[in-house]
Amino acid sequence: MAVGAQAAPVDKGSNQHRQEMLWGYGLTSIWLIGFLVFSAAPIIIALFISFTDWNPIRDGAFWNARGNGVSNYKIFLADHRYWHAVWNTIYYSVGSVGLVNVVSIPVAVLLNQKLRGINIYRTIAYLPAIMPAVATVLIFRMMFQPSSGFISWILTRLHIQCDPSQLTCNPYDWLSNPRLTMPAVILVSTWALGQTMLIYLAGLQGISGSYYEAAAIDGANTWEQFRNITLPLLTPAIFFNVVIGLIGAFQEFTKFIIWSGGAGGFSGGPSDSLLTLFTYSYEKGFEDNLMGLATAMAFGLFVLIGIFTVINFVGQRRWVFYQEER
Amino acid sequence: MALQGTGAPPRTAAPVAALSAISPKGTERTGHSSRVIAYVVVGLLCVFSLFPLYWMLENSLRSESDASNSVTFWPEEFHWSNYSTMWNSLTYPFHIFLINSFVMAGLVTIGTVASCALVAYGFARFRFAGREFLFAVIIGTTMIPYAVMMIPQYAMFINVFHWGGGGSAFGYHNLYQFLPQIVPAFFGSPFFIFLLRQFIRGIPYDLDEAAKVDGAGPLRIFWTIILPELRPALAAVTVLTFIGKWNDFLGPLIYLTDAHNWTIELALNSFIGRYSTIFNLQMAASLMSMLPIMIVYFIASRQIIEGVTLSGVKG
Fold this sequence. Notes:
The structure holds 2 protein chains of 2 kinds.
Chain A: H1 15-50, H2 56-59, H3 71-77, H4 80-110, H5 118-126, H6 133-143, H7 150-157, H8 181-191, H9 194-205, H10 209-217, H11 222-250, H12 254-259, H13 277-287, H14 291-319
Helix pairs in contact in A: 1-14, 3-14, 4-8, 4-9, 4-11, 9-11, 11-14, 13-14
Chain B: H1 15-20, H2 32-60, H3 64-69, H4 81-87, H5 94-125, H6 131-141, H7 146-160, E1 168-169, E2 172-173, H8 179-182, H9 190-201, H10 205-213, H11 218-247, H12 250-255, H13 264-274, H14 279-314
């Protein structure tokens, strides 16, 4: 930490000390009040609601709801759609985080080269990451249209798919074939790899050039340098991106809703292929008005996120390499 | 000692300065042919990033039957009227949705920046019992998934605060529906508090001391010393918050049930519901939701990239 980070020592009990404490409490209470009202209270309310059968249309305010013990938890644990949603959530999260990270590392290495106009390339490569998700998915929905879309056009020309203009042809239906919807959404998520890529780029900037000089003297080729220097020194960044990426992906919402045709009638996409824990909880709560069940389901998602985060932190000791100074 | 006497503050103490120029540090030994390959791959990368945006623009100008039936890379004919058709194709004209998005994201940004800076200042510069504990709580709250908070917050805002609608303000019905998203922003956001606190700790305390000798109080020190030093970090927080809120879909979806309050993202959602196969208008509407963000990015791409990089380095 930087020098002068701590406040200067003052006499305990002095007027100045009291003043300092007052300012400290005063300023931080802005956050503390918000935390108590908008985070702590809702968590308590969530626990309460999850043990009731609150239906806002029938009961009005949540305190009018009837308690029904642990039956919400029993209901969703016995619900095969819920377990299907668990599988879809893991499928999407591992798939998208894996793909985005695998693609981002070479991209970051490329954008770390000394090329003319490199800042322009970086700016362009990052742009998709801040584009609004709804519009992004709309563009890709159009590009993935089964016979008239751009993807279909490319696949036909590459002879991966038959020509949709032929009557016998049955083109890939990325929007309604339940086996293709999730892969399509995962592919769409790679467009916005900028966030992940930028973290890798910062990680690459932090690797001292002297490592590469030493390796070059030893006769290591580019691949060996990448394999034995870049990748190990990048593992803290990989770890960070995987942890943050998974927590985000478990709570992906917009892509599934828009890919299956927009909110207001979401029912899991084709054959529930886009039903994830978060969208299922939303469906139960805000479309079926079963708030108690939806809240209990959300705790299920919380547990899943917790399990994956713990696995990540335990597993990191095996593969994350920290440099001496850390 | 006068303030000017302290000389230029050592900017390197602030992490942003260290990163402000992410300098290319590529390997030099690459030969001529591999440089050509690098340029080709970088070119493909740019095409990958920009092509969907071009696709949106191009198809927004085609006729309805052309856009839904065939693939071209240049419009057969330029149908600029698509934009005016799209503009008035929902219950309210599109500028209503754009204004709603702008006001909501703007107020959230003002609230977040002001509150986070003050709270971060409190944590970084004042000693008080329980400070470390409270700061640990802040870090902890970043771990709570929104999925768990969604319904209880809704229950609280609607049932306890009565922010669900039914009232009128400034002559508009149901304007209260915006409050569940705007009011919490004025109480700080854990992640940005953390980021700014790290930043303030990097500002030399000597500057505060010197001002104190000159008789400046804590607020004056915040205004004259901390804020100017904090400007690059605040710029990053500002643009990231604005973009994040502009792009938000779930929050507006839950609270802004009155169509007059819809943000541009909700308007788009309604658009696919109603006009699921009218792609040219979908693309025109999508462009309208992206354009403001592109403008912000064009102006502030450096701050955004610094901010994201920092969040990774510091987080």
